[in-house]
Amino acid sequence: xxxxxxxxxxxxxxxxxxxxxxxxxxxxxxxxxxxxxxxxxxxxxxxxxxxxxxxxxxxxxxxxx
Length: 65
What we know:
Elements lengths: L11 E9 L2 E10 L3 E8 L2 E8 H6 L6
Antiparallel strand pairs: 1-2, 3-4
């Protein structure tokens, strides 16, 4: 399962809405996947491969090796 090591972001579930005849007529379930990247980062002073979401990478929460 895709999961960010830093913020623990995972899959989220919800409804996909189809709009027909100017009102919502059908609802089907769907999942949203996080933007997970596998990067080589410094963990406890040594380089290690971890899975991190793109939001944590842009925010600078990960020190790359």
